[in-house]
Amino acid sequence: MAAASCGREQGASMAALARLQERLEGLREEYFLTNRAIDEDRKRKYKAAVKIQRWFRACRVQVCLRHLTKMVILIQKWWRGYLRRKHFREIVERAYFIKKLKFYNEMAVRIQKTWRGYYVRKYIHNFYALKKYLKAVSMNNEFVRHELQEYTEMKENGEKMKDLEKKDKEKKYQARKMHYLLSTKQIPGIYNSPLRKSPDPMELLLRKSKPLTHRKQPVKSPFADELYGWPTCKEPPAFVTSLPLLPADRRKPQGPFRDPAEVLRQRYKPLEPTLRARESMYSAPGKAREPTRREEWRNPIHDNEFLPFSSYHKNYEKYEPSLFKSDKYGQGAYGTKYFREVYPKKWIADKDFETLFPSIALFEKFGKTYSSTGQIV
Amino acid sequence: MSQRQVLQVFEQYQRARSQFAQAVADFAARPQSIDTLRSAGVVCLLRPLLLDVVPSIRQTAALALGRLADYDVELAEAVVKAGILPQLICSLPEENRYYKKAAAFVLRAIAKHSPQLAQAIVQSGALGMLVICLEDFDPGVKEGASWAFGYIARHNPELSQAVVDAGAVPLLVLCIQEPEIALKRIAASTLSDISKHSPELAQTVVAAGAIAYLAQMIPNPDAKLKRQVLSALSQIAKHSVDLAELVVEAEIFPVVLTCLKDSDEYVKKNGATLIREIAKHTPELSQLIVNSGGVAAVIDCIGSCRGTVRLPGIMTLGYVAAHSENLSMAVIVSKGIPPLCVCLIEEHEDHIKAAAAWALGQIGRHTAEHARHVAVANVLPTLLDIFVDTCSSEDLKVKAKKALKNILQKCTYLPALEPLLHEAPPSIMKYIIGQYSKVLPHDSKARRLFVTTGGLKKVQEIQAEPGSLLQEYINTINNCYPEEIVRYYSPGYSEMLLERVENYQPVL
């Protein structure tokens, strides 16, 4: 069956095929043109569809966006309003605060201004206080100047006095040196000219002053001028470097003199104190000697102390009178106070013997003019 | 006997040494023979004698070396180079006082010439020995030792510090309390030399308690001692406010004012220096000085002295017046301006004149009142003369100009400004014109006087650059007067009038 149908179909188809083949070129063209038209049509339609879709979609999106924008604006509007209202409160508070502060500042400035003006005028630049102070300063200055003036005057006076004293001393020393210029009775001195009414003051000074004795030769002791010259080290130290040498050609002096070398050695022997002197009083052997010392003091042989100078005896020694002159009641005055017995009842007259001639006045003055001072003859 | 002969030889040698040492010492005291001695090589010959057995030869040799070193720098250097210092000081503690004195003399003679020699002495370890000498009982030895310390410490702060480190300061303070005047003098001078270099050294001296003893010695009648004591106190007080306050607390006022009346010039100078050092620190200290009458004493002191002795007194017044206007007014009230004027005119030295100019500037610069007092005393023409004078030094000119500027800027006393107007150089002129321009707009009498005395004429003659300050002042002055009078006095007015006459067409 299939083969038969196939054959029939094959024959029909063969005819169709031939017919088709005749129309083939024309079909081809037709096909091509139709396709082209359809294609163009399709393209056009496609573009239009795209356009429409685009437009529609855009509208949709725009609606969406518009909606969204509106919502966003709404939100933002409310939010911003809220924020600004909040900030506004703060701004207002701040402005108020600043305003108050400025006000307080101004008031404080006013107070400070008045106070400072008052204070400065009263205490710092107080004109009257300044004037008083300056017056006090000038008074104090006057006082100080016065005191200093007094002080200088005192010092000057002191110096003048010292100068005067020095001059006086020098004058007196000169008078003592020139004592030989004093006038005698026979020869008037230089300062006592006979033509003058009264002697020169220098003459009077000479009369008053004691003559100078001869100055002893200054003994150059080895230790004398060391301490003098030392602060400026101008003079060398003078030391006993060796025993003083005698000149070699010295002749031996006549007489029972000891050997000079021995004498000098003894003279310059260095001090060697005994052990006893060198030891202290309070050391053990020193203390041990203490009882013997006391004993010595207690049992001396003489009672007379050792007298230092020979003339001491003169004042100290008492005269022992002889037994012939002593009475029952003590010493008689005869022999010490008077040597001759007197009988006043036998006297003829009260007065003593008179000499025949008056004594020579000048001879009475003998021995008195040069040795006593302060007497004007 | 042969023993005697042997001993005789030794005796001869000893005698010869002793004679040599004494003869060299005698020659060294005469300046003309020192050169001969030096060429004969005396230093090397004296060196072994320093270690001699006999003490007197050692002393004489030391004395001779001291005199040689004292004479000349070169000899001192020769002495140091010959290595004498170690031998001098090696046996010092056991020696007697004459040797110590001679050794101290040698050290001081070497140290006085230059810092290097003093440094050599310090390095040889002599300071310890000198301290031992300072502890000795004999006042002569102490004097020699403190003199040596003084000469060492004088040169620079390091040497002073070395002296302080050796522990000399407490001993020096003890020396000041001794009864001998010469020792007190030297100790005070040494303390002054130590404390002058720096505040720390002065603080060390103060910490040893020196101020009380120094202050006690101010009333002492000896003039040289007073010089040294005042110098020491001023060196201490100059460094800082605290030290100055410590010095003041020792109650030196008003005793120190008696020193300003002393007959010795240098006592006055040192007293004024002490007051100056105290016054310059703070207004309170200056106030103290004014209140105790110190300003009056200083002014009298300036009036009675001549020359450099016046300088510290002048500076004191300047410092006191510089602190505040009340103090400046106190100086004026104490009659401070006339002596300063006299100083400006009389003195020959430029630095004293400069100080006087500065002091006057400080007095007058505070207010118009002060400037008026200064101007009334006829100071401004003198200052101007000094400024213009060609033989004044630069420093003097600068100070005179500053003083003039300070006073003129406050001076409203026109009669005093007027003589300056005619003589001033342009740099001063602007201040004068400035003052006129401040006063004239308000005072009609002054305007009239200004015209009649020829001031307006002078102002017209001044050439000033337009736009400068001087021109502004001139304009201000010209605006005070009607135009005719300004034109009348402007230069060239007579020619202008004549020209107008020429060009005039007579109206028939």
UniProtKB/TrEMBL annotation, chain B:
Show the GO MF annotations: microtubule binding
Indicate where this protein resides in the cell: Cell projection, Cilium, Flagellum; Cytoplasm, Cytoskeleton, Cilium axoneme
Q: Name one GO cellular component term.
A: axoneme
One GO BP annotation of this record: neuron projection extension
Q: Which SMART domains match?
A: ARM
Domain of life (superkingdom) = Eukaryota
- Entry function: Important for structural integrity of the central apparatus in the sperm tail and for flagellar motility.
Q: Which keywords accompany this UniProt record? A: Cell projection, Cilium, Cilium biogenesis/degradation, Cytoplasm, Cytoskeleton, Flagellum, Microtubule, Repeat
Name the predominant localization. Answer: other
- Tell me the protein's name: Sperm-associated antigen 6
Subunit note: Interacts with SPAG16 and SPAG17.
Matching InterPro entries: ARM-like, ARM-type_fold, Armadillo
- Which species is this record about? Taeniopygia guttata
Family matches, as PANTHER family? SPERM-ASSOCIATED ANTIGEN 6, SPERM-ASSOCIATED ANTIGEN 6 ARMADILLO REPEAT-CONTAINING
